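Pinned message: reference record for Carbohydrate ABC transporter permease
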Amino acid sequence: MTTTAAPAGRRRLMPRWRDYGRPRDLIVRYLLLFLVLGLTVGPLLWQLLASLKSTGEDVFGAGATLLPHDPTLRAYRTVFDQVPVATYIRNSVIVVVLSVTSQLVFATTAGYMLSKPGWKGRRAVWVVLVASMMFPFESIMVSLFLSIRDLGLVDSLAGVWLPGFVGAINVLLMRGAFLAVPREIEDSAMLDGANEWQRFRYLYLPSAWGAIMVVVINTFISAWDDFLWPLIVLRSEGSMTLTLGLSRLQSSSFGYDQRMVMAGSVISVIPVLVLFVITQRWFYKGVSSGAVKL
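Predicted structure (tokens):
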């Protein structure tokens, strides 16, 4: 009985342990991976489990356990009964939609213009954008509030949205993505009679789809999770965003139930997780394709 050897190409496709490095290096890699996973996912998992605990179970202290003995959704029902979560979600959605729309419009157009050579002042604008990223938000917070007050936008969702209608990092990200488009392709489109808008719409935007998704995700997360600026601008309960409104659960008027605080944190983070899970492949693609280039 004779046997035939597998083709050489098939043998090369079969993974071997030495292709992944030495066993000791492989163990170290997995240990580091689980360590990072525990540091990132661990707090969220702990909040979820703590929010499911019944009233008689300890959340903190020596008698506290990780897993709830009698899981219940009482904390979530109490949150929805005591605070207007639907109003908070509506306000957050309005701010997110305004922020994402303005970021997409202005970041893509500004990034496109910065990627085009030949116009005077292009380098100076690029330097100003990079320099603006060096100043923390806290250093301009007072002047921003005075400007919003003079515009009469205090205690309004427009006042929350306006200071962040476009971000320098998103402009530079889109600029890097547009610079990756080969010049020869644009020259071919120009020879075919495509004007500036047509080249931007049908050539550059499809090529920068990954970077656009990065802008969408980053803007969504920053607008949805923002707490400091809404805390300064907003006053009435009907105009509060979700993050700001749920922070009221820590006040004494709600008895400071730790399970309610954990439930509110889980409620606020669920939309971010859902968005990231849906768009993660475009996010990682856009991070690599939209690197900032000099």
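Pinned by admin. Summary line: Confidence is low (pLDDT under 50) at residues 290-294.
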